[in-house]
Recover the amino acids of this structure.
């Protein structure tokens, strides 16, 4: 099964990544995350004591489960399925593309024509990261693949704060959280919502 995720990432894909330790320390110091825990050899972070003040939930009655299951087998399944709110951090040297399987076709920023061949361009980039340019068949505009807009369903980055257990567009980070991340990385941050 796949999990719904709110992912925070720098708005600029070229933003230099920080260390996972620095990112964790910063997010723990403001109360977004609790102490690191283990799920089958992977480090995850349960919600901190100020999680609900730093992530605003929208709608009349969102379903929010903050407590992780006690036993390891149930914990692993609940994490994989996104049945409770918790976070994973990723800081890497190479650019990564994260997306929802239903990511809409991006449009040319110049003429707004759909860039139908973007999956082929993405595959070429994955095979060779130097090959990262798209080309519009309609108006001949071109640019870097990482500059395309995916309407909050995909994004490129080197640093990710992945919060599982949040349905698409059900929650948004407050300005104080985004400002903290900006102070740490010296880059503005944005959000995407995916299921993977």
């Amino acid at each position: 099964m796949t999990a719904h995720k709110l992912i925070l990432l720098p708005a600029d894909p070229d933003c230099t990544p920080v260390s996972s330790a620095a990112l964790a320390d910063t997010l723990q110091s403001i109360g977004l995350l609790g102490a690191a825990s283990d799920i089958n050899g992977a480090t995850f972070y349960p919600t901190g004591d100020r999680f609900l003040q730093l992530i605003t939930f929208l709608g009349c009655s969102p379903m929010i489960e903050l407590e992780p299951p006690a036993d390891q087998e149930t914990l692993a399944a609940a994490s994989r399925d996104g049945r409770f709110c918790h976070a994973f951090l990723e800081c890497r040297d190479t650019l990564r593309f994260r997306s929802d399987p239903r990511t809409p076709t991006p449009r040319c920023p110049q003429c707004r024509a759909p860039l139908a061949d973007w999956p082929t361009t993405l595959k070429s980039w994955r095979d060779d990261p130097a090959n990262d340019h798209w080309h519009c068949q309609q108006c001949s505009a071109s640019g870097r693949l990482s500059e395309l807009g995916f309407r909050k369903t995909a994004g490129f980055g080197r640093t990710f704060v992945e919060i599982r257990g949040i349905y698409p567009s059900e929650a948004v980070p407050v300005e104080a959280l985004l400002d903290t991340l900006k102070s740490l990385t010296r880059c503005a941050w944005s959000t995407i919502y995916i299921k993977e």
In short: Strands lie at 4-10, 37-39, 42-46, 55-57, 86-99, 133-135, 142-144, 154-164, 171-173, 189-195. The first helix runs from residue 20 to 29. The CA atoms of residues 37 and 163 lie 15 Å apart.
